[in-house]
Hints:
Helix 5 crosses helix 6 (202-209). The protein has a single domain (3-242), classed as Spore Coat Polysaccharide Biosynthesis Protein SpsA, Chain A (Alpha-Beta Complex). It is of the alpha/beta class. It has seven helices and twelve strands. Strands 1, 4, 5, 6, 7, 10, 11 and 12 form an eight-stranded mixed β-sheet that branches. The site of cytidine-5'-monophosphate (C5P) has 19 residues, from helix 3.
Amino acid sequence: xxxxxxxxxxxxxxxxxxxxxxxxxxxxxxxxxxxxxxxxxxxxxxxxxxxxxxxxxxxxxxxxxxxxxxxxxxxxxxxxxxxxxxxxxxxxxxxxxxxxxxxxxxxxxxxxxxxxxxxxxxxxxxxxxxxxxxxxxxxxxxxxxxxxxxxxxxxxxxxxxxxxxxxxxxxxxxxxxxxxxxxxxxxxxxxxxxxxxxxxxxxxxxxxxxxxxxxxxxxxxxxxxxxxxxxxxxxxxxxxxxx
Length: 243
Ligand code: C5P
């Protein structure tokens, strides 16, 4: 079997504040996307990494990645393709670029640059053991409230609470999510053309297909770099690794 990783990196990163697309911003001097590519290539099973660039940015991303060649045990083939308007569309375009002999696919957010290789390998191992969809996940620390869909209320207005799901039964999911390639292709083909934001989670599409999805332990260092404080945390993690 051959394993590839698709890295959607076409997001603008609005919540991180003004600046370059999120994946191209530096973490301790190296673009976040480079950290994410290395995190996938660090797994010996991953032979190919497909980076999904902003729709008009494939050339810029290719040039950037060429400045950080993969070496040693991180060696993997690298493809860069243009992405789409939503994460779901970007992943679909990345899957479309995979060669026919790929049987296992990881989908990994560029925004999770620090996922440890042991987590990547655990996801791949669970797919190889027969699970069509595998998701790294952690228990929640915060209690979660459900609210009604917003209907014109101004941001900052107090919101009515609709319910409180039992925290012990919730999990926060991370990436890389691992899939039997045919299952993920089928899910993206069946649920293409979603309106609005589209799916924020590939395993969710597989669930809608009716195929089983299982969780394996995630890792706190696989957190998503979304807001400015996350950059501070990511650089602290890198500093600790280098110490
Ligand atoms: O916005 P969010 O943090 O959920 O994005 C998760 C991942 O999806 C990021 O790596 C981002 O670059 C990617 N993405 C994408 N294409 C989009 C939107 C987001 O590849 N149109």
